[in-house]
Every structure is written in structure tokens, then in C-alpha cells.
């Protein structure tokens, strides 16, 4: 029984013939990346991370998390330009480490995208209901949140509706999806810049003292927590088969979107903790709260609209990445092949899109997900760690392979990337680790009962 059989390099490169439509360019990828990264992290998690973990040192948390992401982004860029196929880290591991680890990583990414999308849609619902309340429109309590008998909530209807609407948009075609995303990105970037240029006039430097109230360990814990904010740039590599010039455009999209977002995160965290004492930021809408704190209520309202746009694009890219991941795993036979069927008219995997949308709609609609958010961070970090090590392996096993982008200073940069991700994983809580291990055990059972027997490598 060969659990570490590798997919030949010829196979993944030939997989993309005649299936998905190649319509995306570097600009589309950059806006998709910004769409994925700027959202819940900047509009929701900055406040909690500052109040509970890092204080004004939150800026260092974003620097640390961004540093780990930049290193990982270099590794992703080399893989994406070398193996331009759907599946992201799953596909890269298949040719580097073999089928078992590829399945584990694919299953890990299913967790990352799925839990993240469910959590973000819950946050989207909260902001949307707050906006409705501002206009005097109030949803019935039973329809306003996931099932909770004590609060009288039964289903989070707005979250379900936005998931289904985005699923429908994804079935219409990737170019249409990218165009909608670009519009939403312009809106939310405008709102983020509005906050920065308005808030900078209300910054009080004394709010930055003490700068590290929880010590450097608080900065590290904050970095592990806000890593959630960076998820999504890896989803760009799942679009590889729909990119016109993947060897050139994928590295540009991955690195440029990450650079833009890291600068914005650092700037926003500085302004935010300069306006409001960090102890007061443990709120669900810290950016809007900061402006209300200085009586800029009109602009605070605009920030809420930007937050809704921001989380909409995050959902869009997360669902996009999830559907392309299932498409790739299914095409290899490790999941039912119905998930890799592509619609002849729209050139999109319609069935897998509705399967993903349906499952996430049920999760976000009925299941409280507050305690699962860190599972997204640990899943992302694990994927980044494996991809980083995969660069070293592929350099040794296929040194002459044509690469559109090459990570400098191999193996130093990939090892540093893996070490940074491992360190942040170590600083996540015990409950997160238990949930992650249980998820992987479930995945191994599915592989044992279905995936190994149906793998296309069994048919060769």
C-alpha cells in the first residue's frame, strides 16, 4: 500500500486543458487578493487583539504576522508559477510529498476556507443588521443569529442569504466574479483610507503608552490571533488554471496584494490605538467605534458600509478558493468526481459551488462559530509551513524544472518561513490544537474508506 505515491509533474500540468476558462490577469489577481485579505481582520479583529493581547503593540503583531506571510508568499509564488493548476497547497504537496500528505493538506484547507467563510458571514450579518437598525428596520430575534435557546435565536438568516447569493454569483463565471470583486474592493479601500485620513487628526500619542502592556509574549499571541486577517492570499493560487499568464501574473498578484494589505493593517492599527485607549477596544466594530469615540458619527456610518463591502469580498474569495480546491481533489479521484464537473456555458464547477455554498450556509445559519475562528489560523499556518518545505523538496527532486519565479536564498528563506509559521502555531491555544487534530483524524478516515481506493493513481 503506497501512501506516498506522487503525482507526476506531467499530470498536473496537463490537467488544465479544456476545463476552466483563462480570463484573469495580474490586476484581477491583485484585487482578488486585496478582496480576500482586507475584511474581518481590519474591521473586527483589530480591537479584540489590541484589548486582550497586544495593546498598542498590535502594530508589531501585524508586522510579525505579515513577515511570516511574506516568506510564505514567496514560496507560494514559486509553486504557483511552476505548477499553474487548481488546488493550491494541495496540488503542490501531491508532487512534492505524495498523496497522503496532499490529502491531509487538502482536508486542512477545506477546514480553513469553510470555517473562515462561516465566521466571516456571521460577522457580515452583524454589521448588516446594525445598518438596518440605523434605518429603523429590525429583524425578528429568531432570524437574527445561529441557534441559541437562551437568546431566542434560531437561524442567522442574513448570513445564509449572503452565502447563497455569492454562490450564485460564482456560478455565473470567473470574469463576472472578478468584476464584482473589483468594485467592492474600491469601496472598502476608500473607506479604509477615509478612516486613516480622518482618524490621524485625533491620535493622542499618550494612548500608545505603555506600548507593550502584555509584554512581547502578548505581541506574539496577538500575531497568532490576527493571522486570521491574512488568510486568503493563498486562495489566489487555486485560480491558477483561470489565469492568462500564470507564470508572470500569479507571483505579481500574490506578493502585491499582500504588500498593500500589510501596509494598511499596520497603519490602521497605529491610528486605532492612538485614538482610543486599547482597554476600550474590546468591541465587535472597533474601527467604527473609534470614530464614534471622537464624535465622527457620520463617517462611522460610512465605515460600516465599507465593512460590509469588505467582508463581502472576503466571502467571495474564500468560497471561490473552496470550490476550486474541491474541484482539484475530486478530479484526482479522492472525492466523488461529480464535484469536478464543469458547466459547458459558464466554465465553472457549478455543482461543487452549490455543495460548498449549501454546507457553509447551514453552518453559519445554525451553528455558533465563535470558538472555531482560531481553527482557520492553525489551518492556514499548517498549509504555509508545508508549502515552504515543499519548495526545498522540489528544488532537490526537480532542479531543472522551469520556474517563472524563484524564491531567493533557498533553503534559508523556506526554512525561516516554516519556522515562523510553526512558532505562531505553537502559540495558539490547546483547544484549537485539539479541534485541529480531530479534524485531521476525520480526514484520514475519509481517505482510508474512500480516497485511497478511488484515487486516479490507482488506475495507472
Radius of gyration: 21 Å
Output mean pLDDT: 86
Largest sheet: none
Strand content: under 5%
Structural class comes to: mainly alpha
Q: How many strands appear in the DSSP assignment?
A: 0
Number of helical stretches of at least 4 residues: 16
Query: Rough shape?
Result: globular
SSE run: HHHHHHHHHHHHHHHH
Distance between the termini: 14 Å
Helix content range = 55-70%
Residue ranges: pLDDT <50 for 5 or more in a row?
A: none
Description of the molecule:
This protein is an all-alpha fold and 460 residues long. It has 16 helices and no strands. Helix 3 packs antiparallel against helix 9, helix 4 crosses helix 14 and helix 11 runs antiparallel to helix 12. The radius of gyration is 21 Å and the shape is globular. The two termini are 14 Å apart. The model has no long low-confidence stretch (mean pLDDT 86).
Architecture blueprint of SSEs:
Blueprint lengths: L9 H5 L11 H12 L2 H15 L3 H25 L6 H8 L2 H36 L22 H15 L2 H26 L15 H12 L19 H30 L10 H8 L3 H35 L18 H17 L6 H25 L14 H15 L3 H25 L6
Helix pairs in contact: 2-8, 2-10, 2-12, 3-9, 3-10, 4-9, 4-10, 4-14, 4-15, 5-6, 5-14, 6-7, 6-12, 6-13, 6-14, 6-16, 7-12, 7-13, 8-10, 8-12, 11-12, 12-13, 14-15, 14-16
Pfam families: AA_permease_2 (PF13520)
Membrane topology: Multi-pass membrane protein
Main location: membrane
